[in-house]
## 1
Amino acid sequence: MTELAKRAGAPAPSGWTYAPAPESTEIVRLRDRYGLFVGGEWLDATEHYTTVAPRDESPLAEVGQASAADVEGAVAAARGAFGTWSKLPGSERAKYMFRIARILAERSREFAVLESLNGGKPIKESRDVDVPLAAAHFFYYAGWADKLEYAFPNRSPKPLGVAGQIIPWNFPLLMLAWKIAPALAAGNTVVLKPAETTPLTALLFCDVVRQAELPPGVVNIVTGDGSTGAALVDAEIDKVAFTGSTDVGKAIQRRLAGTGKKLTLELGGKAANIVFDDCALDQAVEGIVNGIYFNQGHVCCAGSRLFVQESIYEPVVEKLKRRMATLRVGDPLDKNTDVGAINSRMQLEKIEELVAAGTEEGAEIYQPPCDLPEKGYWFAPTVFTNVAQSYRIAQEEIFGPVLSVLTFRTPDEAVEKANNTPYGLSAGVWTEKGSRILWMAERLRAGVVWANTFNRFDPTSPFGGYKESGFGREGGLHGMEPYLDFS
Ligand code: NDP
């Protein structure tokens, strides 16, 4: 028997047992109740709600529900701080930002544990991706703070004023960094609203803001549900930066029409991950798995539609299923875990509904055997084959660990099918031919196209969408522009 044949016949190591490797939660000191962080102080909120751990639904803390009046107070604090902050030399602003970056790096374990506890994502992801990237964003934008005139030559860049920033629950700390770092570097002050289900790392960040001795009012954090977000959109701010669902993004755009407030939207996606028959197959399978099961598929740029060239359909699906059987689903705080908990009951119900629709419409479902914990919100990694382009699972953003597999024969067909969606956030191409990568990248209507990799992020690289995936870019110099006035 050849070595390859032996390996092909070997059982997938799904039966291996891993000794539990739980990360201790002791490093995190939660308060029983949090207020709102306004003007450098903690203010009491009149109402509160409980935020829970998705892994077992246990309550973690009481969090303030900011009212419209609370939001106005936060905006007033940001406005008050703007005069001083915007007039500081860029090199001074940079010092504060470098300090924030360093503190984030120093307290990275605490942030990683809290992110996994409150959001449900595997600790190895929050530890190795979310927190280091968040610190990297502050480092990167700190570097630009005193170089704006060089970054935008002959355009007299000036800060806008107060930015209202609304972020989702899938990358709570990282989205905070994507929003706050460029805004501060450009000389703006901010009021940020984290998502209702994942406020805790943003609240811990307030501690970092104080530790860095950032002038009071430069960063304000108001927690609450969608009504708090809506109040922020309506408040006396100069710019709205929103990441979240396309529906809410559209509602915000309608609300802002004619107000003169600037807007950037980073919305949903239904990315095509396109695999050609000349690719390195095993690497592609790793990329497919990373593309859809990273962060339980709670990723706007997740590679949720897999397009496989017809000639390699069988081996790709077979290898994919074998690899899926090795994924370890379970406690987000266990260092072995690959796929953690679903963020909330609401999101779990949405995933279940769309998966049921996929089966009803005629797609074939595969889920590897895995024991899901009894408590908490869980969904097994799932792949659908026999999917038609018209099925809901091929059209709608599921935002869960669910992959739809489709096929194509020619590059033209791949492009046509990949672009057949209202979204246009990201795409992936797997092939050994550089010329084909460039040919595809030119034609794919997606803000980011990864070649022979997927879900790679870097603070220097702009990220954003086409069509219903939004407009404006975050990251890189492009990410500074929306926070500057050039008139
Ligand atoms: P939302 O778009 O509702 O939430 C994003 C943020 O906006 C949250 O902070 C939310 O607050 C806030 N918000 C809600 N309503 C309003 C409003 N009217 N005005 C201003 N801000 C508002 O996403 P969901 O959390 O409800 O998720 C729903 C779906 O959206 C997911 O299933 C997924 O498909 C998609 N999604 C896409 C994301 C992306 O990155 N592209 C990120 C998150 C979700 P609150 O948390 O209190 O609702």
## 2
Amino acid sequence: MNNSELKKLFNSMTLSEKVGQMGQVTPDFFSNEGETTGPVADIKLNTGELYSIGSILGTHKPEQVIDIQKKYLENNRLGIPLMFMADVIHGYETIFPIPLALASTFDTNLVKKVAQLSSKEAVGNGIHVTFSPMADLVRDPRWGRVLESNGEDPHLSSKLTQAYVEGYQGKSLLHKNTLASCVKHFLGYGSSEAGRDYNTVSVSDLELYQNHLPAFKAAIEAQVKLVMTSFNTVKGIPSSANKWLLGNVLRKELGFDGIIISDWGAIQELINHRIAEDSKEATRLAVEAGVDIDMMTSSYIKHLGDFIEDGEINIETINQAVWRILTLKNELGLFEDPYRGLMKLENLDQNLDNIRKELEPITRSVASDSLVLLKNEGILPIKTKSTKVGLIGPKAQTKDLLGAWSWIGDKSEVISIYEGLQEQFERLTLSTIDDTDSISKQDLVIVALGENSDESGEAASRSSIQLQQEQVELLKKVYEINQNVVVLLINGRPIDLTNIVNYCKAILECWFPGTSGGAAIADVLCGRVNPSAKLPMSFPASVGQIPIYYNYLSTGRPKNESNKDEKYISKYLDIANDPLYPFGFGLSFSNFECGKVEFSSGSLSKDAPIKITVTIKNLSNISGKTVVQLYIEDKIAEVARPVRELKGFTKVSVEPLGCEEVVFEITDKDLMYIHSNLKESADKGSFNVYIGFDSLAPKVGEFVLV
Ligand code: BGC
């Protein structure tokens, strides 16, 4: 539809038809299927309201989408199609590793590919909009939602957020297999106090701008179509009612002109936050703050019309919201084809079958690329097929490898660790702890430990981030019998591994690896795939260190080698300041070294960036990939700045005994930071450069910004 046709349609809408577009319900309103929980259970819509509703959340199958859309269009006066939304977080039915695992790849192309493929399967199921990516910056592994994040670093998260949006949306939503992307949760949700979900957030403006905004900015620059508000307060006001946050920051400063959608039930929750007395007041606050779509409550549908008729809210507010919603429907091509190609397919099931067949092998290679080797005392890879391998532990045979946000994922399709290992090792034994004789006879024993999928994700905060005591005991018992122990970890958050690290020769962090998880793990264990992933979050040495992140601010009393025994410095009495495993860390079967580093110039100016070239050598006779990381330290600034910040990363493959050159370009943009006036600019002065394979990379030189 061209713009003037869309305008004409818009002009013919009644007030209640407009208000309807701003509401959303579950599919069971049309088909009596699906789950109704929370405030949705209380929504009682009349027929007029139902057939004016703008979007649906929670369909499962393409046939269901077709049925609902058909029924709806037969009853909607103007023939404005519904938009179908879903949480396509790390796949739809075929499940890729969790986002935190994908972030471990430090590979924007891979993440973009995953988003493209997830879109394809979701589109085949009738979905138009995904509530992904989650761009929340996280620094507290007690918070279960770190699983959905890109980790602790604003630069990495920005690059990956951009890759997700580009992958989902393609070049145009009119192209086949594209989804509109909704970045979430705006803003600061990752800083829920004490890691407890839905808890208070209290961060400074400087912190919000410097750390929490960049990934959202990246999404908006990549033309993301929707932004979701967060459940938390920002400066005391819940995001869904926060005029400053949505109006000044999101609309004006970031220039976002797409749809703002509340999180699930968040408008009603303004009552629990005790800033609204009832749902009418909550409606007024949310609409005045700029929320266009009310996810899953009846607040807008029930109250917006009255506000307009009473002249309490300007119709322009509603008009703008509805125009944005119609614009997205038009961009998705829904006016021309409300079924987005589904009706033209001869066989919907066959189409989905073909997609699954295409995706499954890719889930395997993506998963093997996301496994982080944390420790290896020469025990991995297990080179010979005939090695006697014992397998034990609660994760040995489980199909629970998909992780949270895989609600349509098919568990029966999952390749368990046992099944994956069976493919690679001829003499694999499933061991039990009672059979000490069998354990003692194995060449090595793999102990598979970790979390269940409901122990991380939304509403899955934990005060302890160690493995369950029974698991630790099991590991110790195995180690007593046979010291050739390899630990596999299945989990959705950084775990405190201090109580297990000395009871094994290797640790492979497998996250929730998805549909082909077991096969991918076996690929790494047998050396078919050389691990290359790196931690996107620090792994604490104790829960007491949290929040912990590599890019902490310079303090007045920093701890260093020469003062570490003094009293009045920033340190703990009982433990080190450092995490057990730092951000960016991950081993390989190859042995990489940074060779010569060359700076194209010792100084940089606005128009003249510098290039830093580093030679990466593979000293081993195994080919492999690694992530070369560049960090910068601003020596003197107006405000206290991080001790170092990631500014560049490149995944590079190096042949056995070969070397490769990696070139980083630094521009003045990379040196910009938020000043005390909340404006971004770069200061003249000098900067240290660190290059290496994790956030402890050594200094390689410095340059000056002139
Ligand atoms: C979550 C969102 C999600 C929404 C819809 C909420 O509980 O916070 O991230 O997109 O539900 O499922």
## 3
Amino acid sequence: MNKTTPRKNLDALRSSLVRLQLQQLPAEARPPLQDAMQYIDKLAEVVATDAEQGSLEVLYRVSGVLGASLDLNVVLATVMDAVIELTQAERGFLMLVDPDTGKLDLRAARNLEQETIESRDMEVSRTVIHNVIETGLGVVTTDAQNDPRFAAQESVILYSLRSVMCAPLRVRDRTAGVVYLDNRAQKGLFTDKDLEMLNAFASQAAIAIDNARLYTQTDQALAERVSELETLTQIDRELNAQLDFTQVVDIARRWAVAGTGAEDGWIALLEPENPMIIVAGFDDARQTALNGALSAVVERCLSESSSQSLLPQDGSPARLVVPILYNLKPVGILVVERPESFTATAQEFLERLAGRAASAIQNARLYTAVQDANQAKTKFVSVVTHELRIPMTSIKGYTDLLKGGMVGPLTDMQSNFLDVIRNNVERMSVLVADLSDISHIETGKMKLTLASVDLGENVTQVLQTLRPRIDEKQQVLTVNLPEKLPAVNADPNRLAQVLTNLVNNASKYTDPEGKIDVCVLLEGDFIRVEVSDTGIGISAEDQKRLFTQFFRSDDPMVREQQGWGLGLNLTQRLVELMGGHIGIKSEYRKGSQFWFTVPVQKAELPREAEMP
Ligand code: ADP
């Protein structure tokens, strides 16, 4: 439908009648001519209303589509099609102001190419557009040559062949873009009414465009944020899984490079005890840069706890220097480099990464320090225990000689003193032996000679050795050994040591005349040994810490006995080294049952196992 056709026809008819009126017409011909003129005017009104109604319908339909879409491209295309349909324009385009650069971007066009828009004969169109942008008001012109706004334009001759209309897209007091339309003169001219309609529509379209734009921006921003969060979670996961200092530094360094698009990255840390800053994983070239060209920047970064962004200069790359802050105090710096400058987003990312790396680096540092201290302790223990063995053997030997009367008869007091010495050396020997075993296990030097062992026999031998002590306390010992037992895979000496420890404790922590029971039973692929007593029992609280080094209960009945709190810790380690488990059931002041398991021997041949 072309709305100009009926209107043009009526216009033509009217001007013919006017011309007729100017002729010398007979008087009787005048009234019908007048009537005809009136009809034509009425008809023109109807045509105009009809066209307006048609436009309103288009407007209504388009508004619905606009409100329903949040896709910016869909909205722009809909707007463009609608204005063409509404105005019957020959061609047109829509431009939006880029919020970052302020430049106008062509976003939708109908029957127009980018090159045409940029060509010289569109100069006036461009002037119209800038005029609209500046004033925020729509423009319609059909006679540019006589229009003072454009008459000075060189291409006005070309332009005069055209009718141009342009309306602003206004959003919140700001012109966000323009809709431009034009028609060649012979195809019809735009009127002020057309501009009015275009203006009305443009203000509605502008809101839809703004909504879609906001949505797209929010959507993009959200997607970026989600992706950054995913990356940061991944970084957290990697950093938290590591306690090795070198690894932690390397993970942080790799992410710094990957996350900022840098070519290279490194980390330097303040030495805990002195103000030196040292490149982690020491590197001569970087350390030199740090002490030389970069020293002032690093100084500022550390003293102000603020990031420093350096532009590329005189052959040196662009650099971002970000402080690594732990508890608000700088502990080091994270540096990335590349030939081109870094963006603000890269800096934000690096700052977030530095925050995360800080605690991981500090934890790893602490862990390394603890590990070093532990190693030093183990080494010390191993040296001391070794050195103590020889003098202790000699003290024991000489005490026994004295006690045996080698140097003459002893008074009762002398004999008592020798007993005290012997007893204390005995205690020391137990401590030294246990400590030496534990340090061997910790340094991986403990070797077990696993063999096929008759556990029944092993139990019998141990009990034979311990019986005098049990008898001395007049305790009742019962043994429950099944007749047929498969051999176990164990180190016989260590197995005996485990049994000795448990039976010894049972006797030690049970009153005279109490009961001790040793029960052996087959349990699947394991043999289970239970050592039960009717002794002092262990509180639930103490049971939790029973197997830790140097643990001794505060129970006064425990403190009556001598001990170092190392036996159970060593026993547990030995049982586990042989592939078994250990556990306890106890009731305070009623008694305890310690149990452990040893795997049944599968292969026939003995073999030697080393600590992993
Ligand atoms: P120690 O006997 O030298 O103190 P252990 O490591 O053998 O060291 O035992 C650790 C602690 O466990 C003991 O100090 C004691 O509190 C408790 N304990 C061990 N065995 C028993 C037991 N049979 N009855 C009660 N308490 C025990």
## 4
Amino acid sequence: MSRIESLLRAMTLEEKLGQLNLVTAGQAATGPIVPGETTQDIRAGQVGGVFNLWGRDVVARTQRLAVEETRLGVPLIFGLDILHGYRTIFPVPLAEVGAFDPLLWERTACASALEATCEGIHLTFAPMLDVSRDPRWGRIAEGPGEDPFVGSKFAQAKIRGFQGERLSDRGVLAATAKHFCAGGAATAGRDYAAVDVSERMLHEVYLPPFRAAVEAGCAAIMSAFNNVNGVPMTSHGKLLNGYLRRKLDFDGVIMSDYTAVTELVEHGVAADLVEAAALALTAGVDMDMVSGAYLRCLPEALARGLVAEADIDAAVARVLRLKERLRLFDDPYRFAAPAEGVQEAHRQLALDAARRAITLLSNRGILPLAADVRRIAVIGPLADARADMLGPWSAAGAAENCATIPEGLKAALPACDLIHCTGVSIEGDDERGIELACTLARSADVVVLCLGESAGMSGEAACRATPGLPGKQRQLAESIMATGAPAVALLSCGRPLTAPWLFEQAQAVLATWFLGDMAGHAIADVLTGLFNPCARLAVTWPRDVGQVPIFYASRSTGRPPDANNFYSSKYLDCPVEPQFPFGHGLSFARVTLTNLRINRLEFTLGDEVEARVDARNESEVATEETIFLFLHDVTARVARPLMELKAWAKVALAPGKSKTVAFTLTTESFSFPGDDMEPMFEPGAFDILVGLSADRKNLLTASLRMIST
Ligand code: BGC
């Protein structure tokens, strides 16, 4: 008999339910204290996992309670949200995604896993895979942006990074793909709000990253808070049991989000907690995070006949299997040993990741800064920010490890005279500091305007109806620019910020997002030209919140936007084009693409299509370019998006040099979900579009046909 079978036989109902109970220890907010009642609950075998608790001593002490003081000695699993670093903080996911570099995504996850496992963590509530096309939604910062293909690649890389080769190895974490699913489509961009999306949108946009996560072997999945088409995800049997377990064969653990089982009552699908617990369990949720509803109410649900003991056993078996895969029964403490030099290596990685995440949005030639710049005024509410450089979900990170912008500039330009002031605060109405800020600006060769959001303005429950620059930042920026001082604006943010006026007036604008520990140094390296920026937008940048949701993969209409046709799909008061398209991002080089060619004009199922394009660096600066390949299925029974990303390539180009970049597409790339949502192939015309962003005006096109066999 296997260990799991014999444990299941030995367990009382209460002990089984204990395994399904995931509790928080509150360290994230209050310090390393396991509340008294949790200690009692663990001793009583009523807890299966604990999160928000880290550090060798406290984790070991808590684990000892389970291993040595419970009847069956089943170890606890320790979890934590590690969205972009554990001790070393890397850029927030939306920024890191902009590097379009799966190896980098994997390396930062791998580094975080090593740091976290040294301090007792076994499982992380990451990666966050919610595709989102709405910058009002604060959680857009935590995920892969607007595109399902990018989201899928991100999922695979992060899971490889967290989980390594085998979960049984020390130094790796079990990953939890979250939040399943479609939370990024929350009505009006408001967290926890209802989601109403078609079956087609689910299968084309919101499910693919989760499918990729399952295929990559992710250990766990967290169901989302939101409902999908009226059914809360915590009780969505069709998507949890149906899609994940039966269709994708996912045999890992499914857990609820924080108190989400209880919330089924508020959602309006359960009359009481007993029904809520039964609904979640029978839909496929194995672990109940924080509600305590399984523990308290499943005995009653059994008595009412709402669940069967076999449902409980199946869930417990999955939790025990995860513990077994992590080798917790043999090695319940499982601490990885910190190796010499790791911390410094992780700081270097954080610098690399931060530089690669900076998106140069506009540049009128002011960047890189001229060598003769002698005096720089660093002005704005984020001019000296430290904690805000980390962004939301900074796990065990610490503000004191973070380099501010002036610190970075000072280190990069020791001979330069640096002055700084905030002028205004991030939010609030006080404009009294603007005058002094203007005086400083007038005395400087160049102004670095540090604008944006606080870390708390992105992430969970951090939605904004008007995602522009808050407070009096516009007044500050316009007053500074009116002095005539050349100004470079940096946007610290977790989302695209609508500020068309800034892009018109500033000499250069960079999205510096929340870059983590090495923010100041990475920014300085880009401003001085030591590092040539290479990030691209993983999300379309709108001009106005009225354009939201806005994304490149839209479908045509019968009346596409046409400046010469009044009765076409436009706004009266705003262009239809975004401020910057998906994939936009400048460098200090200039690269041209020519000569797109494909290896066949006709293809059939099973053929590979190869596209090649020549990339030439026309400048004097070495550069690293990202080249995107989109597909358009010109005519199909179901209208296809005007462009769908199917591949990208990164290419390093020395000054004046050219390279040929090749892409290979399998026929799968040419399929789309049919009426039954299964991939279907429809013969006919396709366009392959290649370019440096999703800007349709600047794409090379090649056409080919799928013919039937
Ligand atoms: C969030 C999850 C997170 C969980 C545990 C919830 O409020 O939605 O993303 O993993 O808390 O911290």
